[in-house]
Amino acid sequence: MEFISLKILDKFQILFNKFGIDYDIMRTILKTKLILDTRRTPVIAEQSKKKSSEKTSLMQGYFFHFIFGVFLAFFIYFIKDEMIRMIYFAGAFFFMTTLYLISDFSFVLLDTKDKNILLTKPLDSKVVSMAKVLHILVYMFRLNSFIAGPSFISIVMLNGAGAIPLLLLEILLMDLLIFLITAFIYLLILRFFDGELLRNIINFIQILLTILVTVGYQIAVRMIDFTDLQNLHYSFEFANFFNPILWFGAPFEIIFNGGTDIYLYVFTVLLIIVPLISFAIYLKLSKKMESLLLKLDGQGNEKPYKHKFELILGKLLTRNETVKQSYHFTNAVLRSDRSLKLKIYPALSTGILLPILMIFNMGMRGQIIEPTGYEYLYLYFNLLILPSVLELTLYSSASKGAYVYVSSGFANLKELYRGILLTVAVRLFVPLLILNSIIYILLFKESFIFDILTFMLASMVVLPLLGKIYFTELPFSMPIDESNQNKSMDKFFVSLGVVACTVILHLVFRKIPMGTWIYTGLLIILIPISWNFITPKIAKKMNKA
């Protein structure tokens, strides 16, 4: 396998040799790294990963970059002000490139294998460091081609071919600044904290990126008013000197719009010297960072006081010892299994957004108008994300550890699943309901307060019913990579039927005099019945065995 980037690099072999770098060894290391990249699935592609070739997964990741790039190009094309156009481009480029770099390429920035494997051999450390830097640059070049490529075309169409060298230089400086900011953030975290915090931050950014790609575009499209974009104009403030994103518009304003203000020239100088000075500082601190990276090899110390609230809830909500242990066990898995969190939290985010998007689609567009009286029904879209969450509790990145269920000798798996349902409710679902309730109260004041309470009670009745449908295997017993390959549409349609019945009952009882009070009382009676007598199929199967 031969890469175009390596063929381009071969043209500069003499330059590397002049600086005392063994080009052949460096090229071999870099080629190995690039081959390994093709065998790695990008974070975004993992969300829809099926049994496909590794190259397909890699290209699928770049497809998401390209979609964002096209949207950004279409957006900035409508902006007439030169300064504003480049500010929007630089801001979006900074934001998305940083997110992708941290979520999808941190394994290179934080790699300790080079130090542990390559430097034990008779190799010059300069060769290993240069291979690492070039690996990052190759990745960022690919990323730039898809994120900035469409916008590059838009800007050239607006300003002519003279914009090409200037834009290429600015993208290079942006890449350098993004890389340095990311590296300094890692250095700061590792200097004062352990590697566990850094891993948690990276996982949070991965989740945020997945949410943005999954549902963010739905909000973005509704927020843009293209008629106002053409009337935007930049107004300088002294604080702008400290915002790097604003610097990148200055050269375009000077060259293509005849800008003569002093601050534009100051911006241009800052644009050049700040990345270069920062890079010099990074080179001096690189050895310190290599030593701090060794913290990542540790697991970090778990602090019990962080989970005090969880322990208190466990005591209050559970009386059965097995249910309590299952509750704490499930909480521990959901805290520590990063791959599982990367799938669960984007699903939960749709539960927050779907009711709001439905309201916007019905013509509210973020303005408070007189409600129709049926908006509370949109809250039941929250229940449609429960099947995905409950099904994901059957998977884990440590699925081989499922032998503990047999070795621990659970007498009744019903109690195990009750603990899991309790964790899903307390840790994931109830916070989602509370957040949606707050949004509804802000939008509609006191109009649907009683309906929100009724919906919450109905959700607690429905949760065990959905658990009975989806708990057909031992919890956390299947590989996480298979979570998107075993989707069962018949289970989803049964779940949809259960939710639909709940919606109809709420609607019918609300139209009956005193019906809401009757329905609420009925739900309060049904909650303990649902939680005590709904036994998952797998529990019945295991008990018979």
Shape: globular
Average pLDDT over all residues: 77
| Helix residue percentage | over 70%
| Alpha carbon gap, first and last residue | 53 Å
Order of helices and strands: HHHHHHHHHHHHHHHHHHHEHHHEHHH
Extract low-pLDDT stretches: 47-57, 364-369
- SSE-based structural type: mainly alpha
The tally of domains stands at 2
Strand order of the largest sheet: 1-2
Radius of gyration: 27 Å
Beta content: under 5%
Treating each run of at least 4 consecutive H or I residues as one helix, how many helices?
25
Number of strands: 2
Main sheet record: 2 strands, parallel
Features:
mainly alpha; two-stranded parallel sheet; 2 domains; single chain; 2 strands; 73% helix
What this model shows, in words?
The protein has helices at 4-10, 13-18, 23-38, 43-46, 54-77, 82-109, 113-117, 125-147, 149-159, 163-192, 195-223, 226-229, 244-247, 250-257, 262-292, 308-317, 321-336, 338-364, 386-392, 404-408, 413-444, 449-470, 489-511, 515-533, 537-544; strands at residues 395-396, 478-479. It is mainly alpha-helical and 545 residues long. It folds into two domains: 63-296, no CATH class; 306-544, no CATH class. The chain has a two-stranded parallel sheet with strand order 1-2.
